[in-house]
Amino acid sequence: LGVLIALIGMGAWLWSGSAQSLAQTMQLAARQLPAGQTLQVEGVSGTLRDGGRIALLRWERNGLRVEARDVVIAWVWPRLPALLRERRLELQTLDIGQLAIVDRSPPSPQPFLPPDDLTLPLAVDVPLKIGTLTVAGPATLQASGIAAHYRFDGSHHMLDLAALQLADGNYQGAARLLARAPLTLDAQLRGEVSAPLPGAKQPLPLSASATVRGPLGGADALLAVQAQLQPAQAGSSTPMQATVSAHV
C-alpha cells in the first residue's frame, strides 16, 4: 500500500509539471460547474506546478458575465502542498490585464438579502494586480492601476488596497469583513482627487478620506459612514466634514 501511494504521488508530481497540466485542470474545472454556469478558457500555457498564463477566462451565469484577459498566475511549489495538507491557497502572483464584469441578469422581484455565511473552504492569501477594471450593469465603473492583497483566515475577509486609479483620483485603503452573520464591515479609504473649479486654469487638489463600519446582515443592519474632504495644501481652510448613517 505504501509503494502504491508513493507511485501515485510520483505520478501526480510528474503530471503537475507537464506542459498540458494547467490547461487540463482548467478544462476539468469547466466541466464540474453546476448547471446554468459556463466557463470558457482560451490560450492556456504553463504548468499546474509553477503556474502560467491564460489569454481569456470567461464565466457566465444567468446574464452575469465575468471576463478576465491576460491572466498571469504563479505560486512556489512548496506552497502547493499546503493546499492539500493545511487547506490553504497561497499564490505568489495573480495579475489580470483586463477584468470586465457585465451584469445583464433580469431584476429579481425579491429584495436583496445578504447571505448569513461567506466562509470559504480554505484559507486564502493572494496578491492581486489588475490593469483595467470595467463594470457595466445597474452601476457603471471604470478603474485602473489596481494593486491589492486579499486574505481569508477562516473567519474574516481582508483586503489591503495599495493603489487604485478612479476618475481623477488615486486611492488606498483597507477593509475587513466578518465572514459570518452579522457580516460586520470595517473599511477605510483615503486618496487624492482633483476637483475642477469654474474659471480656474488648474483643478483644486483635494484630500479625501472615509470610513464605513457596521453590520451588513441581520434585522439591525446599520452602516455608519464618515467622510472628510479638504484641500490638499497644508494650511488651507477648515475641512468639510460629513457623518451619515443609513440602513442597508
Write the layout of secondary structure elements.
Blueprint lengths: L1 H15 L4 H11 L5 E11 L3 E11 L2 E11 L5 H6 L2 E3 L2 E11 L19 E14 L4 E12 L3 E11 L2 E10 L5 E12 L8 E12 L6 E10 L8 E8 L1
Parallel strand pairs: 4-6, 5-6
Antiparallel strand pairs: 1-2, 2-3, 3-5, 6-7, 7-8, 8-9, 9-10, 10-11, 11-12, 12-13
**Whole-number average pLDDT?**
84
Described by the principal axes of the CA atoms, the overall outline is globular
Number of helices: 3
Stretches where pLDDT is under 50 for at least 5 consecutive residues are 238-248
Number of strands: 13
Estimate what percentage of residues fall within beta strands.
over 45%
Structural class determined from secondary elements? mainly beta
Roughly what percent helix?
Answer: 10-25%
Cα-atom radius of gyration: 22 Å
Distance between the termini: 57 Å
Q: What can be said about the biggest beta sheet?
A: 13 strands, mixed
* Helix-strand sequence: HHEEEHEEEEEEEEEE
Features:
13-stranded mixed β-sheet, 13% helix, globular, disordered C terminus
What does this structure look like?
The structure is a single chain. Residues 238-248 have low confidence and may be disordered. The protein is globular and about 75 Å long. It has three helices and 13 strands; from the N terminus they run ααβββαββββββββββ. It has 248 residues and is mainly beta. Strands 1, 2, 3, 4, 5, 6, 7, 8, 9, 10, 11, 12 and 13 form a 13-stranded mixed β-sheet that branches. The termini are far apart. Helix content is 13%, strand content 55%.
